[in-house]
Amino acid sequence: MEFIDLKAQYAQLRAPIMQRIQAVLDHGSYIMGPEIKELEEKLSAYVGVGHCLTVSSGTDALLIAMMALDIRPGDEVITTPFTFIATGEMIALLGAKPVFVDIDPETLNLDPARIERAITPRTRAIMPVGVYGQCADLDAINAIASAHGLAVIEDGAQSFGATYRGRRSCGLSTIGCTSFFPSKPLGCYGDGGAVFTDDDALATAMREIRVHGQDRRYHHPRIGINGRMDTIQAAILLAKFEVFPDEVVARERIGARYTQRIAERCPSVVTPTVPRTNMSVYAQYTVQVENRAEVSQYLNSRGVPTAVHYPMPLHRQPAFAFLGLGPGSFPVAEQAAGNVLSLPMHPNLHPATQDLIVEVLREAVHARREAAPA
Predict the structure, then answer these.
(1) How many Cβ atoms are within 10 Å of 192's Cβ, its own excluded?
(2) Domain containing 81: what range?
(3) What pLDDT, on a 0 to 100 scale, did the predictor assign at position 252?
(4) What CATH number does the domain containing 84 carry?
(5) Domain CATH for 262
(6) What pLDDT sits at residue 368?
(7) What's the rounded Cα separation, in Å, for the pair 34 and 112?
(8) Is residue 271 scored above 50 in pLDDT?
């Protein structure tokens, strides 16, 4: 059993993927070839914004967004401690300070009710993350940001394709960023990402930053990075994008079925909460269980792969020890980090396989309870 079955997806899309790759090999424009523009146009139309720029990774997307906003050493960016390290890492890389705010216990996304008290005169931006495939409460976050003159950078690395109040992830704020890492809902076969905005000036700045700060050949008005996406990765994404809307529908259906079946068979297991305002793409289908190590070990012994996203909140990572945030600083994030467990999830997951996973999960939880002392 595959945790994310990219092989099955490739088997279905082999012909168009190979055709797209061959076209790149034939024209030879491996950097910034015509597929880059084609992909950017399709992605911007899909998200519903004026500008999309493909970049070298989701991590670089965050970096480029903050560089375009001129975030500098001494500035502060508010974000969640319950995410992959790239979110906080890029803030610190620019010399700015990541200011963590605890998460909502239901959605596990940044809690808007806790943001305002974290704002200081040094705050420049808020960076919510679409954890596990659903957007944070962007209307509430945008309202707070607007009241304080702050930018909002949506880290949509896990939520690309999801919707919030009928609008798509990455088109909900000042700048939206996403990742096309192979395991993401829309993934290439290497590293890749994109940034999205309706702001013309920010789009121009990000285009320049992406190519070493260059506005024309050998003329560099700003400091930039080498942040371009390879043309071959764009070609792969173009082939996969043709079926992506159908995969989004499948992901939502499979996630909802997981929730229903687990509620029926394993009522003690906490399933994802998706508010009515949201549609999740379930980049991961993540439950919360007690004694996670034992449950995971049982599942793995029965051939069901699992993963933990994420076992340690960012404020407890050694790299962020300089912030001086000890245990108990963000209790909701810390509790989630100790309980979350991700189950196999992909758009080709068969109902029979899903039922098997749920049954083994029931056995794992039941076996743990039987083993517990009276």
Answers:
(1) 28
(2) 6-101+111-241
(3) 98
(4) 3.40.640.10
(5) 3.90.1150.10
(6) 57
(7) 41
(8) yes
Q: Are residues 16 and 149 in the same domain?
A: yes
Are 337 and 276 in a shared domain?
A: yes
pLDDT band per the 50, 70, 90 thresholds, residue 374: very low
- Determine, yes or no, domain membership for 327: yes
**CA gap 357, 345 in Å, rounded:** 11
Q: What is the pTM of this model?
A: 0.96
Q: How far apart are CA 328 and CA 13, in angstroms?
A: 47
Looking at the structure, tell me whether residues 209 and 230 fall in a common domain. Answer: yes
pLDDT average, residue stretch 15-33: 98
How far apart are alpha carbons 158 and 177 in whole angstroms? Answer: 10
Give me the sign of the Cα torsion angle 293, 294, 300, 306.
negative
Residue-wise pLDDT for 350-364, tens only, equals 999 999 999 999 999
Total structural domains within the chain: 2
| 236 and 256 fall within a common domain | no
Is residue 295 predicted with pLDDT exceeding 80?
yes
- At residue 372, the pLDDT reads 53
User: How is residue 119 written in tokens?
Assistant: 């704002």
pLDDT in tens, 227-252: 999 999 999 999 999 999 999 999 99
CA count, 13 A, side-chain hemisphere, 11: 5
Structural domain contains residue 1: no
Q: Are residue 222 and residue 360 in the same domain, yes or no?
A: no
304 residue type, one letter: V
Question: Does a structural domain hold residue 106?
Answer: no
Rounded Cα gap, residues 87 and 96, in angstroms: 12
132, 14: one domain: yes
Torsion 264-250-293-317 (CA) sign:
negative
